[in-house]
Design a protein that fits this description.
- The structure is a homodimer.
- Chain A is an alpha/beta fold.
- Helices cover 43% and strands 17% of the residues of chain A.
- Chain A has 11 helices and 10 strands.
Chain lengths: 275, 275
């Protein structure tokens, strides 16, 4: 089989998915990436399953127009609520961020007590619980889930290590600390930015970065490009040109990507929901 | 002139506008109200002017389909970025939340030092500064503006008076307290929910509720219904049926409104942007 030089598509409700893209680029430096952030409708985490599915299908349809060979759903909410419908509809492989992290958590725990933190929608979907339970079978793990809706705005404000952030993190993680978990899934792509505060609060707990796990799975699916490539090749699209994007993108990715291109994806599906 | 029995239209990016609706209902109990919350695309506060204008025009077009006699833009971001275009385009009066609050602040201040807090987009628009300056002329007031982007998520979490909320409010209001303001505009419809914490931090400061000011202006425009009406008449529409809506609505309004009707407004304007 020859090397497939089509790009890898990655989408997220906004900028959080850039923490996933960061690992994808690190692990597959020879690949071309198309990133779409649905910044006109961000966040997905407090929207209904119907709406999240529609938005995810529009994002995927846009990426398909760029002839991608693989789609990474770099958003926990969309992975929880829309992965299955995307995998059924699309002729290319689709990877979410939940199953890879759930598998890693099951491998990492030694006392079978696992914590999961995420947005309200991700936690309400119970997607991590189902996935962790499935991977752990026949063992039955104890799973403790907490929605942490204030973490995303704190990260987007750049309040990564302020007294307020510590207080809120202490509050959210209290039930997890009391449950004596030894492994915690950061079930939202923004949360790795809070890893320092969380690690200090839970020093004996393995933190699982869902983006890193998904990037590992993506690498296993893609035949490596030949030779060594060091030039980073990312085409960046957003549905709204928000003032904070460039700064936040640099903070999330660890390098600068310049101004993204703005696109409209509201009409990428027809009235019947077809591309 | 006979009493005009058409309803009053009110829209917001989500639920914040319900603090405005609350005052409208209190001041005009005989009126019918159509409320639209664009919960599928909330929040507007971190989106670009173009996108906010498009969304506001779609909201207004939807309300116009219900033959409203007056539109209240119960959202500071939309008032800051889209009021003028709505007033130019629509054949009915359109009231925003900024000018009424700016006028009230100018009347309330005695030392001509006024603070304004709001979302990032509202503060960046400088809409309050322009409006306050215009009303205060020929006096030149000193205006101190601070964006408080964490307040909306705190309110939506119901963290109205927690230690973290106090800490964040202390941080945000520090420059305002140091500036010796005697009047502060709560330039976001969510912020009246934090009035207790803010009043404790700034005991010598008059807090201006933009929704109450806008409701006063709306009443002045509408010929009162005859007789006494005590039945509250609100038709509630949302663009996404989010799980938290009913609870939050009750908390914001002070009474229960039941389940809202979900509508789609993405296609309410044609390709040329016409209704």
């Amino acid at each position: 089989m020859n090397y497939d030089n089509r790009p890898i598509g990655v989408f997220d409700s906004g900028i959080g998915g850039l923490t996933v893209l960061k690992h994808l680029v690190r692990l597959m430096p020879g690949e071309r990436f198309i990133y779409l952030g649905d910044t006109a409708r961000v966040p997905y985490g407090n929207k209904s399953p119907d709406t999240v599915q529609l938005y995810a299908r529009q994002c995927a349809a846009f990426l398909r127009q760029h002839d991608v060979k693989l789609i990474v759903v770099a958003c926990n909410t969309a992975s929880a609520l829309a992965l299955q419908v995307l995998q059924q509809e699309l002729p290319v492989p689709v990877i979410g961020v939940i199953e890879p992290a759930a598998r890693k958590a099951v491998q990492a725990t030694t006392n079978t007590r696992i914590g999961v933190i995420g947005t309200r929608a991700t936690i309400a979907s119970k997607a991590y619980e189902h996935s962790i339970t499935a991977y752990a079978a026949p063992t039955t793990p104890s799973i403790y889930s907490v929605a942490c809706p204030l973490f995303v705005p704190l990260v987007e404000e750049g309040w990564l290590d302020t007294p307020a952030t510590r207080l809120i993190a202490e509050e959210y993680t209290r039930p997890l600390r009391e449950s004596n978990i030894d492994t915690m899934v950061l079930g939202c792509t923004h949360y790795p930015m809070l890893a320092k505060v969380l690690a200090e609060l839970m020093p004996n707990c393995t933190l699982i970065d869902c983006g890193e796990c998904a990037a590992n799975d993506a690498r296993a699916l893609v035949k490596p490009a030949e030779g060594t490539h060091t030039q980073i090749n990312i085409s960046m699209f957003v549905t709204d040109q928000t003032p904070a994007f460039t700064d936040l993108a640099e903070r999330f990715l660890g390098f600068s990507v310049g101004q993204p291109e703005r696109v409209s994806i509201d009409h990428v599906l027809d009235d019947k929901g077809q591309p």
